[in-house]
Amino acid sequence: MTTEAISIPVYNIEGQQVDTLNLNPRVFGAAVNKECVYQVVNAFRAGQRKGQAATKTRGEVSGGGRKPWKQKGTGRARAGSIRSPLWRHGGVVFGPHPRDFSYSVPQKLRCVALCSVLSAKVKEKNLIVLDSFALQTAKTKDAAKVFVNLKITDSALLLIDKANDPMQRAVRNLKNVDWNIANNTNTYEVLSHKKLVLTKDAVDDLVKRLKK
To answer: Among candidates 203, 110, 193, which has minimal Cα distance to 161?
Structure first.
């Protein structure tokens, strides 16, 4: 982890540099811990699994309550139900059933992983800071113009300190742009976008959240 403050330019929505900002080195200059990132991303993806795959056992398949033929004297093998797993249309042995795949990882591990991916974005020069994301209208074309001004053509994640209805309506139809509240973001979300765009207030919120 670097101990020196990291200076980064601050842009307005016109794409012009208006200031510079010193990023907290504990949050944006940490060593990239790939093991922590791996564990946290795996836990997040496991939590997204629906776990709804299901098959029916012989007791759950409709029918089969009557013994097909008597136990002895027919010359055929013994059979107790037409829904035996050995029969066509029978139950399934050891098939999948609805389950919860989610599991938790320690809070400290999640913080280390998030600091790692934020620091990686800074090192890759894929982190951009805006003074604010205030739009005059709730139009998608105005929101798209901001990212054109910032010369962003790849997928981008916009992190803000608080949401408002005009901003949400302006951003929600952008093809390669997602947004979230800084205090709600996670490692997987940051990692899955090429560019990370934060407002100055969002940077402050992340520092308060991750310095604990």
So the answer is: 203
